[in-house]
């Protein structure tokens, strides 16, 4: 992995210095009438640079995972599935035709399911099937786009000539990308995927599964322009997803779920910038986010190993006394979420917020983004306060530092600290610095500082059912006692096609009952939210 990362780094450097040149490798399988079935790979500055980021993070995760999973009896199988996961992502990155797109897309879906259910518990199986079912919606949209490829008499998406077919194609594939990138209302699977081992979470949330949809939209938007209606949808869904992730994280005490919700918030920022037509800026934030989010997960993995798997932030006080380097890296990567000055995300996230101010955006989406920025600052400081600045509660800690845990964190820390500054000077992104007034610049900083202050002085938050279920997107069966409609004997249990606790809930040794959602409260709240969503989407642009 390190060798492939070095090779892709050299390739990316060559393409960056070739001033926009690209190499397309196209193989024609067969041809019927005027329709050509081809495999196509694109090697340009975008695909090769993103492949470099993916392989660099993957190499660090492989080194860390070999230590994290050393006591597992099937560690070789785990690493092979993880390798297939990375290869599928690289297929998607380099794809230039529908064939390779399906190969990478379905490969990500299958391998991610195998990794999420790796621990083979009922909660892991539930999370795996939830992830699989939501992502199947995106698969259906990609299969539906096959008809547009057939009508255009080609299977490559970099040479579309029909504007009508191209608009339909990018709309379908953009919606498919929203399911893979966990945008509202497809967000429920992302926190559930935390059932996977921590090395898997580091890959999923940084540079592979959740970024696949956004990268696909960026790749397509460089060849087929997004129409105004599609941009409006991306603006609103990105803003709502960003708010959803930040707001829910302020009420979460599970460390891995807090990081998962932070990923949800940052993905919303990227989709929001895509809606503004800033695809290069979204790609820039995608790279910086991949670096510091992988660093954040590996640092959190070291903390979890030292705490014997305890993930409650209220029990991890003063963990930095035993492992200062890891906690410093955790603090640095957490501050990247806020866009702290001179860290990597400062050069991308703050630029997106400044472009938001300078664009002709409606007041509702702008207000949602400012509120999301406030909640992001709040939950970051709340988490740092619980882990780094509070008194120790649990006396059971085991400090483990070796080359397999320190080296990956050190490699990724360079990208998390200096990556934004180094990449901002490259010609890949063609960044433009907006000219905004001192008032709006101070307003952005004031919102962030206010959230940090409130996060520091807040003592704690009670669990909120509305937020813990992500605006009632997640099934309530794992959060509240369910309502029941029918009993079945244990003999009938064998006929169920779904895994335990997806649609069922064991009550006793002799019977189980089917679960449904809470009726009136959920329906009324969901209808209110959806009416608000459609109204604000109508007001966009």
From TrEMBL:
Keywords: Membrane, Mitochondrion, NAD, Signal, Transmembrane, Transmembrane helix, Transport, Ubiquinone. It catalyses: a ubiquinone + NADH + 5 H(+)(in) = a ubiquinol + NAD(+) + 4 H(+)(out). It is an enzyme of class 7 (translocase). GO terms for cellular component: membrane. Residues 32-78 form the NADH-Ubiquinone oxidoreductase (complex I) chain 5 N-terminal domain. Residues 95-375 form the NADH:quinone oxidoreductase/Mrp antiporter transmembrane domain. Residues 1-18 form the signal peptide. InterPro entries: ND/Mrp_TM (IPR001750), NU5C-like (IPR003945), Proton_antipo_N (IPR001516). It is found in: Membrane. One of its GO terms (biological process) is ATP synthesis coupled electron transport. The keyword Ribonucleoprotein does not apply. Its EC number is 7.1.1.2. GO terms for molecular function: NADH dehydrogenase (ubiquinone) activity; NADH dehydrogenase activity. The chain crosses the membrane at residues 46-65, 77-94, 131-151, 157-179, 200-221, 233-251, 258-278, 290-309, 321-343, 363-381, 402-418, 438-457, 522-540. It is a multi-pass membrane protein. It comes from the Eukaryota. It holds the Pfam family Proton_antipo_N. Core subunit of the mitochondrial membrane respiratory chain NADH dehydrogenase (Complex I) which catalyzes electron transfer from NADH through the respiratory chain, using ubiquinone as an electron acceptor. Essential for the catalytic activity and assembly of complex I. Belongs to the complex I subunit 5 family. PANTHER family: NADH-UBIQUINONE OXIDOREDUCTASE CHAIN 5 (PTHR42829). This is NADH-ubiquinone oxidoreductase chain 5.
């Amino acid at each position: 992995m390190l060798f492939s990362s070095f090779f892709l780094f050299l390739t990316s450097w060559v393409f960056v210095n070739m001033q926009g040149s690209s190499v397309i490798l196209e193989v024609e399988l067969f041809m019927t009438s005027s329709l050509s079935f081809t495999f196509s790979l694109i090697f340009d500055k975008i695909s090769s640079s993103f492949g470099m980021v993916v392989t660099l993070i993957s190499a660090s995760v492989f080194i860390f995972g070999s230590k994290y999973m050393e006591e597992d009896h099937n560690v070789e199988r785990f690493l092979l599935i993880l390798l297939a996961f990375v290869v599928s992502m690289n297929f998607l990155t380099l794809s230039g035709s529908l064939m390779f797109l399906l190969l990478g897309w379905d490969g990500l879906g299958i391998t991610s399911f195998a990794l999420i259910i790796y621990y083979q518990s009922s909660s892991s199986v539930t999370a795996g099937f939830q992830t699989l079912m939501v992502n199947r919606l995106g698969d259906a949209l990609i299969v539906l786009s096959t008809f547009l490829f057939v009508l255009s008499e080609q299977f490559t998406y970099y040479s579309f000539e029909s504007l009508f077919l191209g608009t339909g194609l990018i709309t379908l594939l953009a919606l498919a990308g929203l399911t893979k990138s966990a945008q509202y209302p497809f967000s429920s699977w992302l926190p559930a995927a935390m059932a996977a081992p921590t090395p898997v979470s580091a890959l999923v949330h940084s540079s592979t599964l959740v970024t696949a949809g956004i990268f696909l939209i960026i790749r397509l938007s460089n060849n087929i322009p997004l129409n105004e209606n599609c941009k409006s949808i991306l603006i609103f869904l990105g803003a709502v997803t960003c708010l959803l992730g930040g707001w829910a994280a302020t009420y979460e005490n599970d460390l891995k779920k807090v990081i998962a919700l932070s990923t949800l918030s940052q993905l919303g920022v990227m989709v929001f910038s895509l809606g503004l037509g800033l695809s290069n800026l979204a790609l820039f934030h995608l790279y910086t986010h991949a670096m510091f989010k992988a660093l954040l997960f590996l640092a959190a993995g070291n903390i979890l190993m030292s705490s014997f798997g305890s993930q409650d932030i209220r029990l991890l006080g003063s963990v930095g006394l035993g492992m200062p380097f890891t906690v410093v890296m955790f603090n640095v990567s957490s501050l990247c979420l806020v866009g702290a000055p001179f860290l990597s995300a400062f050069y991308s996230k703050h630029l997106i917020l400044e472009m938001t101010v300078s664009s002709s955006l409606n007041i509702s989406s702008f207000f949602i983004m400012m509120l999301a920025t406030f909640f992001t600052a709040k939950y970051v400081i709340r988490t740092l306060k619980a882990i780094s600045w509070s008194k120790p509660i649990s006396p059971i800690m085991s400090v483990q530092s070796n080359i397999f845990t320190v080296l990956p964190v050190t490699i990724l820390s360079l990208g998390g600290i200096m990556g934004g500054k180094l990449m901002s000077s490259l010609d890949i992104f063609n960044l433009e610095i907006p000219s905004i007034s001192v008032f709006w610049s101070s307003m952005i900083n004031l919102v962030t500082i206010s959230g940090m202050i409130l996060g520091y002085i807040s003592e704690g938050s009670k669990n909120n059912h509305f937020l813990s279920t992500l605006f009632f997107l997640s099934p309530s069966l794992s959060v509240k006692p369910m309502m029941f409609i029918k009993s079945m004997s244990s003999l009938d249990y064998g006929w169920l096609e779904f895994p335990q606790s997806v649609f069922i809930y064991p009550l006793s040794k002799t019977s189980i009952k089917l679960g449904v959602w809470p009726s009136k409260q959920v329906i009324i709240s969901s209808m209110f939210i959806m009416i608000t969503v459609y109204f604000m989407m109508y007001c966009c642009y």
